[in-house]
Amino acid sequence: MKTKKIITLVVLMLSMSATSLATDLYGVAAKVKTLEVTFSYNRQNGPGSNQYAVWIEDERGTVVKTLFVTAFTTKGRQRQGEATQRGYTFRPTCVPSWVKAVKAEERTDEDLDAYTGATPQSGLQTFIWDFTDQTGKKVKNGNYRVRVEATLINDRIVNYTGTFNVGGKATDVPLTRSIAGNDGSHDQMIADVKATLK
User: Fold this and answer.
1) pLDDT over 70 for what percent of the chain?
2) Mean pLDDT, to the nearest integer, of 164-174?
3) Mean pLDDT rounded to a whole number for the chain
4) Per the confidence metrics, is the pTM higher than 0.90?
5) What angle do CA 66, 74, 120 make, to 5 degrees?
6) Which DSSP string do the residues of 15-65 spell out, in sequence order?
7) Measured between alpha carbons, how far is residue 115 from residues 2, 3, 74, 122, 169 in Å?
């Protein structure tokens, strides 16, 4: 009787292990379809504030896809009948890392319009990358970087960067934060920045 219980217990444990393994293998294939980037955005008042960009780079630093950039950065504004200028041309501190990485000067207005959006109201912002490039083609498995850059005010700029693997497991992506500029104001314009493979 005792031997029968032990055998039953062993069979049950092996069965559970196999099910767990199958679930893990299935889970990686079925669940890791996107990278989700979220942060809390708190609209600020002040020159140069409220501009940000979210994008993906490959290992070489080439932009694979821009998920979002604020409209002022790419469309600028028109004053007193003057021709419209892109925001970064007369405010060079406007998300400069993104401008340089994407080679904005070489892009047409139509190209930039594809991922430009109005600066939102305060609240949670969510951006999803479906592992496709700017043309909609699926990228190869491998290492990529997610970048978030925000112009807090004037030349005070914050950057978040994290490396992750397309084809890997569902996980939170560790992000490093760097900030430029001496003015300590507006630091909470974006907060609680997270990136998660799902």
Assistant:
1) 83
2) 95
3) 85
4) no
5) 75
6) HHHHHHHHHHHHHHHHH---EEEEEEE----STT-SEEEEEEEETTS-EEE
7) 67, 66, 10, 20, 28
Closest CA to 67 of 33, 117, 26: 117
- Phi-psi group of 14: left, alpha or beta (phi > 0 → left; psi -120 to 50 → alpha; rest → beta): alpha
d(CA 63, CA 53): 12
Q: Which pLDDT score, from 0 to 100, does residue 14 have?
A: 41
Q: CB-hemisphere CA count at 13 Å for 88? A: 22
What is the three-class DSSP state of 163? strand
Residue 41 corresponds to which tokens in the numbers above? 């955005």
Q: Please provide residue 102's backbone torsions phi and psi, each rounded to the nearest 5 degrees.
A: -85, -10
Cα 89 to Cα 100: distance, rounded to the nearest angstrom: 12
Q: Are 54 and 153 in contact (CB under 8 A)?
A: no
How far is residue 38's CA from residue 175's CA, in Å, rounded to a whole number? 12
